[in-house]
Each structure stands twice: as structure tokens, then as C-alpha cells.
Design a protein that fits this description.
Blueprint: E1 11-15, H1 19-30, E2 34-39, E3 50-53, E4 56-59, E5 65-66, H2 70-79, E6 85-87, E7 92-96, E8 103-106, H3 117-121, H4 128-143, H5 156-162, H6 167-182, H7 191-203, E9 211-214, H8 218-232, E10 236-239, E11 242-248, E12 253-258, E13 260-262, E14 269-271, E15 275-279, E16 281-284, H9 288-299, H10 301-305, E17 312-321, E18 330-333, E19 340-343, H11 345-348, E20 355-362, H12 365-368, H13 372-386, E21 395-407, E22 428-430, H14 443-458
Parallel strand pairs: 1-2, 1-16, 2-10, 7-18, 16-22
Antiparallel strand pairs: 3-4, 5-9, 6-9, 7-8, 11-12, 12-15, 13-14, 17-20, 17-21, 18-19, 19-20
Length: 459
Amino acid sequence: MRGGRVSGARRVVVIGGGLAGITAALDCAAAGASVTLVEVRRRLGGAAYSFERDGLRMDNGQHVFLRCCHAYRALLARLGSERLTSVQARLDIPVLKPGSRPTMLRRGSLPAPLQLAGALARYPHLTLAERLGAARAALGLLRLNLEDPALEAQTFGDWLARHGQGPRAVAALWDLIALPTLNVPAAQASLALAAFVFRTGLLSAADAGDVGFHDATLGETIGDPAARALREAGVEVRLGWRAERLARTADGVEVHGRGARRASDAVAEEETEMEGLSAEASVVALPHARAATLLEPLLGEPARALRELGSSPIVNLHVVYDRPVCDQPFAAGVGTPVQYVFDRTAAAGAPAGCQYLAVSLSGAEREMGMSVDVLRERYLPALRELFPRARQAKVEMFLATREHAATFRAAPGVGALRLAASTSVPGLVLAGAWTATGWPATLEGAVLSGHAAAEAVMR
């Protein structure tokens, strides 16, 4: 029933307002359930969110997607915000190296897996022998059986080394894809997940890897439209509500937690009394470490094992110059600490004449321990090496945002720790990019997990 709750309908509580929870709630409501979504933050979107600083609208991180991310793109269409994104007509990655001219990794017109053959043949950051070796390694990935459990026990780096890919080739080519998609370098990544990424994004269909961008902020693209869509679907959304305990009941699951309310017209807030939400089914769509704590009393060892998934951080640097210094909408770096840089000037509403660049650092364990001053000393010179015009520009703003546990750690053995949507407890269902979607921790994986959770609930 659109715009209202359905009397006598199956009751579902969704815990978590990220992409997985949003998707599960919308699916359950569309199937006729009476849905309540609770989220501890004062916003929706989970790890994909925006904030404002000195009048600029900034995202916590740069989340891109691929043309083959069909579930995520369909969710944006459902939210009415797909118009705020764009997808390249043809995969085209500018690659920058200090002291070298920019080069383009551009998809050609040949069918997969040959669409990048021309770009690889001209790629100047590898020797001819390294380029031929990279082509042979790509064909080797195609021959792997993704169902083979042995792939889970190996690192992608070891596999590449056995296929003639040395450290220089890995850094200049393979990590360009491995780092942003797996959030760990090839040397540490699960071969199973790496093979899935390269097969799905680059080797299966010629246009699968075309890159998609959020032209507006994440809040405008995900959080705000999700709030509207959930309201129109009749989902009750409780923000600032922390789930603290789950209990089995005769009818299903009860979620115990606390909300927050304003103590007065002032800013101060106070917690309400502990409250219980009864439902026939509950979807736990939280980050895996938080989910483990909530689930352990009911699931025991499988929930405790979730902590072994580990975590991998992401650091984003936000740099505002007093003039344009970069001509590309985004670019990858080779031979530099800068991994990927994005021009977010328009989305942020930067002042006229200024340029706002966001630098995304995946697998950023070392950078997590650096102060803002140290990051500034390391990365501003690196940006000047890549963008000569930055040498004369004034830095108006430099700040860092950090996601300590941005994703689970995509290391060997992680597949055995990822849980399915259904659990041994009737009515208790799981969602999140860390569940057994087959994908690494991506926007697509999160949405797929939400669909799987809703299917499990409505079964």
C-alpha cells in the first residue's frame, strides 16, 4: 500500500540505513510487508555520505561504479537519482606519472577480452616484454574456474608472480584496478575475489568496465532520495535509533534499542528509554564488526567468526586550489603516492575560479596513522609533480577524511567467513556488502545483499 502501512501485513524491522538496508526495506515494502527501518545515524546512506565544510559540499569518499553494476544502477533509478550520475561512453582512464605525458587506458572497438589490447600495446609504463606478459596473464585469468576453492587460499600477487608479473608491472597496471575495487593491493588480495573483479569488469563484456560517476554529492544521490522513496513506500524510518540487543520470540525476533529525542529546543539531546520492536523478521544490515556484536548471542560461533573478516581503511584528501590545476575529471597515478584523483569542483559548489580535487587512497593502512600535517607534506608535493600548474597555485583548503573500517579485508580465506542472508534463527536475516554476494565490498555488493535479504524474509 503506497504511502501508508498495511494493517495485518508481515512485520519486518531493518537494522541499518546503508544501501543494503535501504534496498531490503524497499523490497519488503513492495512485497506487502509492514517495514520499520532503524538507523543510528541522523542520515541514510551508511558509508556513502556527504558533509559540509566551509560552505563546500563534500563526500566522505569517492565511490565510483561500473556499467556492469546493474543492481546499484537499478536502485538509483528506483530512487529517482540516476540522472545525477553518468557512465563513460567508453572506458577511458587517464594515467599520470611524474615527469611523463598523460597516457590513456582506453577501450577499443574489439569484443571482450580484446577491447583493451590496443591500449595495453601502447602503454608506456611497461616494457614490451611486460606488456606481452600482462596479456598472457589476462588470458590466464579467463581460464580460471571461479568455483575452485583453491583460489581462496592464494593471493592475487602470488598468482601474478607465477605468471611473470613482477613488482613493476603489478604497481603500474594490476593495482590500478585491484586497489580501488578490493581495497587492498594485489599482493594481499584474495585470488578468488581478484579474479572475479577482472573477469566481471574487464574480461566478460567489452563495455562492462566503463566507469560510472556520481555527478552530485552522495547525499543528493543516495541519502536524500532514499528518505523520500522509503517514505513513499510506507516504510517507517527511525533515525538516531541504536539497536542494542536481539531476542527470539514466539512470533519472530524482537529488536531492543534506544532512540534519541531533543531535550528542548536547544541542540542537546537525551536518550529515550529502552524500546522493543517486535517483528516476524529482522534484517541486520550493519557493518560486520557491529553485526557480530549484535548477532553473537543468537548465532554464536558464526557471528564471532565475522570479526576475522578484518577491515581495510580508506583515506580521502580534499584539496581546494585558488585556480584550476587539473584538466581531467579523474585520473590514476603511477609512480606516485597519489592513487586516484577526482575533480569535484562542480558537485561541491566551489567558489568561482577555484578547483576542488579529491584524492582517494585505498588500502590506506599507513596513511591512517599520519596526521593531517604529515599527509599535507607528503601529498601536496606529489600533486605538484602530477599537475605542474599546482606549483603556482595557492592551497585554500586541505583536509582528510578517514574510514577506519571502510570494507572487510579481501584477503585469502575470506570467502569461508562470509555468511548467507538466511541464518539458523527463524526470522533473522543478514545483509551487507560483507555477506556472501560473490562481490567484494562495493556499492553493487551492498545492493545485491539487500535484495537477497528481502527474498529470504518474504520466503
